[in-house]
Amino acid sequence: MSTRLASGGRLIDRSKAMEFTFNGKRMTGYAGDTLAAALLGAGQTLVGRSFKYHRPRGIVASGSEEPNALVHLGEGARFEPDQRVTTTELFDGLTCTSQNHWPSLEFDVGAINNKFSRFLTAGFYYKTFMFPRVAWEKLFEPIVRQSAGLGNVPKERDADRYEHFYAHVDVLVVGGGVGGLAAARSAASTGAKVLLIEQTAHWGGRAVVDGGEVDGMPVEDWVNKTVEELENMANVTIRTRIMGAGVYDHGYATGYERVADHTPGDGRPRHRLWRIRAKQIVSATGAIERPLSFAGNDIPGVMLAGAVRDYIVNWGVSVGDRVVVVTNNDDAYRTALAVKAAGLSVPIILDARAEAKGPLADAAREAGIRVEAGKGIAKVHGGKKVTGVTICAQAGEGASLEDIKCDAVAMSGGWSPVVHLWSHCGGKLIWDIEQAHFRPDPDRAPTSHDGAAFVVTAGSATGALSLADVLADADAAGKVAGKAAGGKTSSKTAPTVDAETMQPIEPVWVMPQGAGPDKRMKMWLDFQNDVKVSDVQLAAREGYESVEHTKRYTTLGMANDQGKLSNINGLAILSDALSQEIPATGTTTFRPPYNPISFGAIAGEARAELFQPVRQTPMHGWHAEAGAYFEPVGHWYRPYCYPKAGETHEQAVNREVLNTRENLGLLDASTLGKLIVKGPDAGKFLDMMYTNMMSNLAVGKCRYGLMCSENGFLSDDGVVARIDEDTWLCHTTSGGADRIHAWMEDWLQCEWWDWKVYVANVTEQLAQVAVVGPNARKVLEKLNDQAGGGMDLSAEALPFMQWRDGKIGEFDARAYRISFSGELSYEIAVPASQGRAFWDALLEAGEEFGVMPYGTECLHIMRAEKGFIMIGDETDGTIIPQDLGLNWAISKKKEDFMGKRAQQRSHMTDPDRWKLVGLETLDGSVIPDGAYAVGEGVNANGQKNVIGRVTSTYYSPTLKKGIAMGLIKHGPDRMGEVVSFPTVDGSNTVVKAKIVSPVFYDPEGEKQNV
Description:
- The structure is a single chain.
- By secondary structure, the protein is α+β, with helices and mostly antiparallel strands.
- A hairpin with a 2-residue loop joins strand 33 (629-633) and strand 34.
- It is elongated, with a radius of gyration of 36 Å.
């Protein structure tokens, strides 16, 4: 049984007791404990149940590699499932409960699955839930969904807050063990700006536990001295409780900081997501100890040898009074010596190697510990706790040589470098036969855009496992990274450590090596998902030769720890089953994050009101004061209309339309996307982005353009203005600016990265007002007259589809002669800081001309009266320009543009595609939104044949009747025909409409040219 030792525990403060509860039971730990240490110190070895068989599970590890000990942490608004007890810092009042059992942890009905384990092997669900097919929806699927997942979903709104933080450094060092400290120290000596992050609350890593001397002083003293040195360096920032989560292209990395997990409710953000840009990244992430595969290796009390040592040294916790040590390498001897030094018993060290020699083996014998070479464990005895082991010859089949009583087993199958960050961005691995692990291949490092390596490993993450090798490698890695980041050559000497003599590891993937089927069915690889040695061998027999296929067939490495303990052993078992070397089998894919991170950290402050921030134009305040009724357009709130007292919205819209057509209307058009595209290759780039030519657009002129996706479907439209020889300004739809900007950047960065083009989104830098109506020119000229001069806005000086820069009144302006209403219209752009003043000046000057602001619905009606399309109304992701009669906007000269080849596919050129037409109801009514047109006959389902649909439908106050635009089969060839639109309001009525030209108003375009 585990217990708290009377003394020891370098990380705990015994003067500060802390109370916590586990499954309602009150327990006590100390400040500095992890929850795992506190549980073990309180004698709680059973902490959970496995996923499939609901077998008892205890704590196996001491860090983030722990697969078993996941709990529900907290209550109410701070409840969170699947929290790893080995990385959770204890705090006073902590509340947790175990997971995946019913009705209790001690008595779990789900354990019945263990009795049927022979039938619930790997892939059983692929074979079981196939027949009868009708049973899937009503029987199988509910069972699978009820059984899936670990932990409960939080029910209450999260009480904590989260944030993002941005950092730009020369060198990022991930990992605060002795390797990370040495690398940061040497990188800083080059003059580089260094950020060092460590995922735990303490510096030094394993070396402090294992002991030794560096530069003539104890490791712990050297760590403290180095930390103090780094803290005093102006070019170094060091932070604990930050996990290096992922490495991406261009030196981008993420860090996950657990700011206040250990101090809940103190007002600080709970988690912080760091977004880091670094010229060089040093991965000093250490190594993880591997378990051994023997029968019963999952019983609570069987732990990694290094973890047993951690709990004794760091937290003063004994995992058992009698600890059997089983190993294939020298490191586990340190655990045996630590257990013995704590006053506990080590009945035997079982060393699977043929010989057990060297300084550590000799020290164990001198301490009175029995050492047996060539031996292993045939079986662990016990159910919910270890009661003993059966010893066997490693070279045999598991015949019993001796039974030994014990209450804990410390196992070590060797150490594997943590290669995740190295691999996230393309770093390759090689198999190290001598060390029996995969390690980074320095000749195939992750490379940046210039082909140069930007990630380097240090210390144990490189594959160096002795203290001397770790520090020498880390010092060199730091200097290389600092120099590559632009630092100077460093002459700082590396830390000095006496070399150690170590006996080589002997790979052991199955214990004993000749174990039969009965034993292999009790050897666990993935403790959480209940994957056994026999499961992987079964997958190989059933043809799953790819490691990725085996992973998914067996769920090996798919648990919460993502295979940190199971993957290498599983790969070795699969390789043996396939009769091939381990490198030929390869590894699964390493993907970020390294450990799970909270959804809160990912979202940061983007929640509640900030989840989708409302964007407001410079004139928004005026609109609100004027009583505007707003509608969301993308992230913007735009005035839908400006109702007066006693007016309905419909009445307000009709008034705005008529006034704009007859007098003067103002539209706040600031929301229109405005993208500056600049560079020597900008014209070539825009020719690819738009369906028509933009490179030949003259400076000072504008052109309407269409943008399509690669699949040929219409994506956005807008007016493009050429500003100078290598600069264009592209207008987009209000909701499309960010999307189109990202779309352009995607092509520039991923496909045409060598084109000299820059794109800037200046939407919010400019306020834009559409001045529309017969009196539009008059109000602008009045502003000029009041200021004593200004831009010439005459039809001769500023023709249609041209633009000019200059002064309008007192305002710096760019005037575009473009129209989306069919009326005389100017769109005037001014700096955002002048937007409200310009709007106020127009209202004041326009009073004598009948000025009236209008909203988006008035805009929509006027554009529909003119037959102008609207993205999102006439388009739905399946429409091509040709469907809308926009063939004139598609260049026949260009060799290529986005979507050109797609538009040549047979489906796109099908003459039966629906085409855009205008629709006038016979009785003057308005066709309902979304109505479908039906034709003669019925389809195979007995439904009426559909021959088209309405895309936009309005009441036109100008024409005093209902008008609509729609897509109709063979529409342009059916002018004058009447089509039927059944209503969907339950009245069983049919609206009759005549097919007409989509241009209802001023078809000659005379009004926009006055």
